[in-house]
Amino acid sequence: MNEPADILISVVIPTYNYAYRLPRALDSVLAQQAADVELIVVDDGSTDQTSEVLAAYCGRHPELGVLCQANAGAGAARNTGIRAARGSYVLLLDADDQLARDALTNLRAVLAAHPGVGMIIGAHVSVYPDGRERLRVPAEVPAASARELAHRYLLDKRIAISHGCTLFRRDLLLQRPYPESLRSGEDIAVFAYLLVSAPVVVTEHVIARIHKHPGSLRHDRQNEEERARRMTSEVFASLPAECQPLRQQYEAKRYLSAFRAAALADDRQNARRYYLRASRLSLRQALRWGYARKALRLFFWF
Fold first, then answer.
1. pLDDT in tens, 45-75
2. Band (183; pLDDT cuts 50, 70, 90)
3. Which candidate, 177, 123, 136, 159, places its Cα nearest to that of 12?
């Protein structure tokens, strides 16, 4: 096969047992295939018909790149695809989602206007199981210090970043790979690092249709206290010194997230414990009304 032209955008799709949804994602990318785009699928040890689906696609699209590995989680699969990619930029598309029409054309235009940008955050459409759709347009990302950007993203949640509708500069992803020890929330450490490391551009163009389904909406409560500590450690491991004073507040946020999940599960003992731990870390975070109201009900209502 002849060596392709310089690759601008590598679309990487990690997949695990999504044979029945994967064609939708593949078709949405292949419909926009161009000389400066490559598509890589990383099969993370699937045990369903994923290999057959990919073999059929490779027969029709020999340019499709397929990598297979033993099951190691989404973060590891993304890292594998990023290392193999040749593009200057990487778009990480989940196997159950799809690119919007003209997404790659719109991203090229943004890159031409903003060469060297570290991240492009686009709009997306959330598609729900009952057929409802909701347009999500990203908020502007201000030119600000690393600490202010980290605060807006990690604590205030005023900056939203999602796979599928965000384009990342590949060299930055190589500098801060996905933490493979985490099986959920592993993207937060990567997003935070890119946010404070290079300019960010926001576009109102719809880049992806992100499908919500019961599996993607569930909250995993296994080892939640350990995960709160490990996520905090991973997030701040690569952030600059000026962001480190935010660490304790962020750990409190992680405990408050565990508190909320425990409260919803009517696990009152752990909910109380997580809330008290969050309060000791950051009383300001714990006293935010949404959390404080739940805590009042939990502690005083029986």
1. 999 999 999 999 999 999 999 999 999 999 9
2. confident
3. 177
Residues 114-142: what's their mean pLDDT? Answer: 95
Q: How far is CA 193 from CA 121, 159, 165, 175, in A?
A: 15, 13, 18, 9
Structure tokens at 282: 């950051």
- Hey, what are 170's tokens? 């590949």
Cβ contact 259:285 at 8 Å? no
Q: Which of 242, 290, 301 is nearest to 268 (CA)?
A: 301
Give the separation between CA 253 and CA 97, rounded to whole angstroms.
Answer: 29
CA quadruple 254, 258, 263, 264: dihedral positive or negative? positive
Exposed (0-12), middle (13-18) or buried (19+): which is 239, by Cβ within 10 Å? buried
Q: Residues of the chain with pLDDT > 90: what percent?
A: 82
Average pLDDT over residues 218-236: 83
- pTM value is 0.92
Q: Which long-range contacts (CB under 8 A, 24 or more apart) does 70-74 make?
A: 70/45, 71/16, 71/44, 71/45, 72/44, 72/45, 72/180, 73/44, 73/180, 73/182, 73/183, 73/186, 74/14, 74/16, 74/44, 74/178, 74/183, 74/186
